[in-house]
Amino acid sequence: MAERTMTDATANAIQEALNLAKDNGHSIAEPMHLAIVLFAKDDSIGARVVARSEPLKGAIDIHVIRRGLNRLLLKKPSQTPAPLEASLSSSLSQLLQRATVAAKANGDALVALDHLLSAIYEDKLVKSELEGAGLTKKVATKSLEDMRGGRKVTSASAEESYEALDKYGIDLIKEAEDGKLDPVIGRDEEIRRVIQILCRRTKNNPCLVGEPGVGKTAIVEGLARRILEGDVPETLRGVALRTLDMGALVAGAKYRGEFEERLRAVLDECKAAEGHIVLFVDEVHQVLGAGKTDGAMDAANLLKPMLARGELRMIGATTLEEYRQHIEKDSAFERRFQQVMVKEPNVEATISILRGLTERYEAHHGVRISDAALIAAATLSDRYITHRFLPDKAIDLVDEAAATRRVQLDSRPEDIDKLERKILQLEIESTALGREKDKASKQRRRMVKEEISDLKEELAPLKAKWEADRGRADEIKSIKEKLASLEAKAATAERMGDYEKAADLTYGAIPDLRSHLKEIIKKEEVRRAKEAENPESVSTVSEVVTPMHITEVISRWTGIPVNKLSQTDRERLLKLDERLKHRVIGQDKAVGEVVDCILRSKAGLARMDQPTGSFLFLGPTGVGKTELAKALFSELYDGDERHLTRIDMSEYTEQHSVARLIGAPPGYVGHEEGGQLTEAVRRKPYTVVLFDEIEKAHPRVLTLLLQLLDEGRLTDSKGRTVDFTNAVIILTSNIGAHVLLEEGVPKDEVQKSVMRQVRSHFSPEFLNRLSAIVMFNSLGLDQLEKICHKAMTGVKRRPSLAGGC
């Protein structure tokens, strides 16, 4: 039989059978060699047939089949030396001829693996082993028909299209049944809307559109759970919900038409199911252009006819931005979907979602998550992580805090680690001293041994306490895992109609385990309360995630301290005046004005939608305007002064330069890079922004700043809103500097003269939006002497920092 009449997989199977015969010292390949090849691998056609046959025939063990076929191989005599090449036996040649006849009778262009597997039953020895294991020809034929799904073999890679949905999709109903999907809290309205659209006669394809992280995929998982529980209309009961992996479809498709063949196989399976399969495509915009090459069509064009006729039910999910960029441009594709907007939940809804997920995360990490920690995660993430969306960012916070707690539980406490290292160090010293014979060394060794003994006595109770605490934490984790497993088994038993088992678990084992868990947790809380009264016996290990752990994660993410406003933080703000005056010499009045505005804002007396403070610093060069900005950044945000957002307005004298602040418009060079101002604040919202020499900026730049100062936000060139409410905005200017330097002029006259010049340069609406206009005095000799002395102190330190003498 010429090789061109076979698929690639068939040719490879025959070649492997010849190689197997040669390796075992057989000069001819028999049907048994081919049978071994067809059942050898876990993804072989034989193994897939066995997996599909189980619902028809009961449990069939693939290992029994393999052992039986290998016994046939061992019974066949081998020759020594082994033959150089093996050839086809007459029985195997006849088997291939029968496979060819069967292929033609079925209307197939090529002989495929399923033709070989059907024909192999003509060999008595192989048939005996297969039927002895329970795999009859009738069962195998039915499984092969199900795998093929009525498709004809027309290409050399036809086997790749068998069971396409199993290869390129995930069964969400099965995932829900196995308890792998997290519970979906809320989103009832969106799930109902999706169900309504799916029940339409035509164009029954919902498309979930929303920002990343708001819960689009969770809605589909919630639908899967409802289908599993039967809580859906009659038209959706018993349907399969599959996730289509576009990446897996495209991956490895080397030749033109291979991708289309794979997708066609998936669509044919869906069509053959007659509405009993719903496809879910996450990031549905990737369908547009997927697999498109010269002379080939993209996936969207294959989907459009089936979507329009109602032959395929599909759920899509994408972000607002991707929907605008890709789907809206293809109106023919867009009109086949019904848009379902998924909005970001508020803080209260997020707290409910977190409470519903707590058990899952507690069981996974083996920790307890306090309700206060959940509230802190929702509120703090909403306030501080402005570039992401709820509930995703709050869930990530809880997950990372719990993971951190688990790592700390599994690691040795710092005090135990220090003692063990100290003991090890002393034991090494004792061993070294043991080699010495002098009196001083012997005396030192006795002292070292005594110290080791004392340290071991100190270590023993700490270590015992740590191991006991760890044991309790592990016990709680084990009980929670067992509880989750029993609940999953009870739900499965109820769905399968095994009500006796479901009742035993629901009213017997599960309540007993829950009460046992409550008892352990109650004892643990009592023990911790007693420890809190006695500081000396504080536990070395705590498995409870608290709001403080959430704030630590926030701090790692944002790079700023976000601890609750404790007493020390209040004192720190109240002493801000003193620290700034110590650093900025000779400008006490200016510092006082700035601090007053900052304190008003922090106390909540200023508008919430404005920056923390916005100031115009006026004064001659070198009097401390920039230094005060640096000092504010250092004191308020614990920041490195080198990371201060500083923008030199002498670079923004042209009208077009405003694009550098918020980003170039679409189509211009630099659009993808974003704006110098908006990107800096978007990445680090808690900062001080210094606009140096603001009077040199183009009027268009000042117009842009009006919105920033009034609303506390800016929209960049990509349409993203950047929040400035947690930033301090400082504008510096030399307007009226010569007046401030004049001697003998009364202060009132100087201030009036400077303000006249300021009002002539800046518009009233711009000045009215500032928190304060701060004037800096010229410095006297005494103040300059202090500044020089402070600067020289820094100069003296430089040689030592540089490694000099």
From TrEMBL:
UniProt domain Clp R: residue ranges: 2-150
The organism's place on the tree of life at top rank: Eukaryota
Phosphoprotein as UniProt keyword: no
Coiled coil segments of this chain: 416-496
Transmembrane segments: none
SMART domains attached to this UniProt entry: AAA
Keywords attached to this entry: ATP-binding, Chaperone, Coiled coil, Nucleotide-binding, Repeat
Nucleotide-binding found in the keyword field: yes
PANTHER family recorded: ATP-DEPENDENT CLP PROTEASE (PTHR11638), HEAT SHOCK PROTEIN 104 (PTHR11638:SF18)
Name recorded for this polypeptide: Clp R domain-containing protein
GO function term, MF aspect, one: ATP binding
InterPro entries: AAA+_ATPase, ATPase_AAA_core, Clp_N_dom_sf, Clp_R_N, ClpA/B, ClpA/B_CS1, ClpA/B_CS2, ClpA/ClpB_AAA_lid
Family stated for the protein in its record: Belongs to the ClpA/ClpB family.
